[in-house]
């Protein structure tokens, strides 16, 4: 058996987009109650990888965190939400499916989540407190990421990345 061959950068680039997408308006990561700028940078990179958009509130520190986290140094698809609950209501009114990445009684397991067939928003909560109850009233469903360890949840960037890959149909 021969050793695996690492593909050269030129070969990898030939199968990818030539430039950043504008707005595909299909899958969004929405960390609407962010606490750590590093998580936003990681989610921004994942959004680029899967062709998703990032929706964030305009908090004073968020633009700098996104600029610092954009390691690709190319334009990315970022939507500024304004007030979080009003933005979620608008997304539902326009026909988007809104999913909370949260542990709820009715949560769908990540393994069972299907690729998005309509505009879909993956709502990510606060790193410590999760998705607020008033936001859960506005979602169409929730996604649970099963865990075997002692922690109750994953880092927001890790959880969001897993869900985005599933919604994009890449896992």
Automatic annotation (TrEMBL):
<feature type="domain" description="tRNA/rRNA methyltransferase SpoU type">
    <location>
        <begin position="36"/>
        <end position="165"/>
    </location>
</feature>
<protein>
    <submittedName>
        <fullName>tRNA (Guanosine-2'-O-)-methyltransferase</fullName>
        <ecNumber>2.1.1.34</ecNumber>
    </submittedName>
</protein>
<dbReference type="GO" id="GO:0032259">
    <property type="term" value="P:methylation"/>
</dbReference>
<dbReference type="GO" id="GO:0141100">
    <property type="term" value="F:tRNA (guanine(18)-2'-O)-methyltransferase activity"/>
</dbReference>
<dbReference type="InterPro" id="IPR051259">
    <property type="entry name" value="rRNA_Methyltransferase"/>
</dbReference>
<dbReference type="InterPro" id="IPR029028">
    <property type="entry name" value="Alpha/beta_knot_MTases"/>
</dbReference>
<keyword id="KW-0489">Methyltransferase</keyword>
<dbReference type="InterPro" id="IPR001537">
    <property type="entry name" value="SpoU_MeTrfase"/>
</dbReference>
<dbReference type="InterPro" id="IPR029026">
    <property type="entry name" value="tRNA_m1G_MTases_N"/>
</dbReference>
<keyword id="KW-0808">Transferase</keyword>
<dbReference type="GO" id="GO:0003723">
    <property type="term" value="F:RNA binding"/>
</dbReference>
<dbReference type="Pfam" id="PF00588">
    <property type="entry name" value="SpoU_methylase"/>
</dbReference>
<dbReference type="GO" id="GO:0006396">
    <property type="term" value="P:RNA processing"/>
</dbReference>
């Amino acid at each position: 058996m021969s050793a695996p061959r690492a593909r050269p950068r030129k070969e990898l680039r030939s199968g990818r987009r030539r430039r950043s997408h504008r707005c595909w308006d299909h899958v969004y990561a929405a960390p609407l109650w962010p606490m750590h700028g590093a998580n936003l940078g990681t989610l921004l990179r994942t959004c680029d990888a899967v062709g998703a958009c990032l929706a964030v509130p305009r908090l004073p520190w968020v633009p700098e965190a996104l600029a610092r986290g954009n390691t690709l140094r190319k334009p990315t698809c970022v939507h500024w939400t304004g007030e979080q609950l009003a933005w979620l209501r608008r997304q539902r009114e326009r026909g988007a499916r809104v999913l909370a990445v949260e542990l709820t009684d009715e949560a769908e397991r990540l393994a069972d989540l299907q690729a998005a067939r309509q505009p879909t928003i993956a709502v990510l909560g606060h790193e410590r407190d999760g998705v607020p109850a008033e936001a859960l009233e506005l979602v169409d469903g929730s996604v649970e990421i099963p865990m075997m360890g002692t922690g109750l949840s994953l880092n927001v960037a890790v959880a969001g990345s897993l869900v985005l890959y599933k919604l994009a149909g890449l896992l």
